[in-house]
């Protein structure tokens, strides 16, 4: 009998009969073996991922024989990324919407720790409110460089990347593009399929932060790049303020963005865009988890609202973080997670996505950014007072020094023209 001998922290070596488990399920023997090996490697690693924290041997043995009812996804389809990327923070994706229920004993504690959303909680119904409730925070554009709000949506009746077929990607693209054709006014635009895109055009879009790339190792091992570039593309309106990514990580990523700090206008555009697309397509939704997507970090509202903001007078990043945390905001550099601010420019975004409405998230974001701007203005005033006081002190010191020099000159004996020392 083919077996794997397991050796990892705190657990005695034992034999696991691969064929025994494979015969009990529809899971192929080689997949079962890869799962076992991946679990051993993960347990022997020092990975900080939530997957490693919550996937115990007992839970692994319980879940590895299960598959989802419709799409027959197995545990490996969900955890492959975390088993191959030990530097992952989360380490798990849902292979299809049913994965959140079939493998709930693993997903639920991860969701609870990441979102603070407990297993008995219920995500509230969507409530967008009105963008007009949020006037421009920085009409003179002194601080906010750009504002961006995005959300993810998955089409009902389709699995996620690991289980999507060649035909699924093509059908998704066709369905989504049909919805694009019905957009009008500010939202009308053009769809660019990656497979037909010239390399120079693609690189320009990437450089301008409009386009995604296919080089994420976590998504790669999560099977998000299968059949690439089939079915992938980007839709943009003429102003490039409304953008939709198709089949990058999720079926659609809806993005509203523009220069400056008019959060309300950016939010209103996103609301209209989301509702217009929802009128043409049915999106996957769960009463407990809200909007269902590929990664458990993008559940609930799935909203990430962010600004790039210039704060030259605040001397310490800790000061920005202290203010931001009062409003459930996250602070990082403009080059992504774990990056530092560059020249006093910060990326500030919402932390909460589950258990709150869209309107609550934007309200927290608005109030938090307003408080940060006020802190920056106060820091600038304090700096100006210090500089004025320093300049005044320098003038006083300079005056006192001049007085000393004058007193020394008065006390010093003057040399007469007839003195021998002055003769040549």
TrEMBL record:
What Gene Ontology terms for biological process does this UniProt record contain? phosphocreatine biosynthetic process
Ranges of compositional bias, category Basic and acidic residues: 401-412
> What are the record keywords, sorted?
ATP-binding, Kinase, Nucleotide-binding, Transferase
Q: Which GO terms describe its cellular component?
A: extracellular space
The yes or no answer to whether the keyword Nucleotide-binding is present is yes
Which EC main class describes this enzyme? transferase
Annotated Phosphagen kinase N-terminal domain residues: 31-116
Q: Which InterPro entries match?
A: ATP-guanido_PTrfase, ATP-guanido_PTrfase_AS, ATP-guanido_PTrfase_cat, ATP-guanido_PTrfase_N, ATP-guanido_PTrfase_N_sf, Gln_synth/guanido_kin_cat_dom
Q: Which Pfam families match?
A: ATP-gua_Ptrans, ATP-gua_PtransN
Stretches for region Disordered: 401-424
The protein's Enzyme Commission number: 2.7.3.3
Give residues annotated as binding ATP: 146-150, 209, 253, 304-308, 332-337
Name the protein family. Belongs to the ATP:guanido phosphotransferase family.
Know the name of this protein? arginine kinase
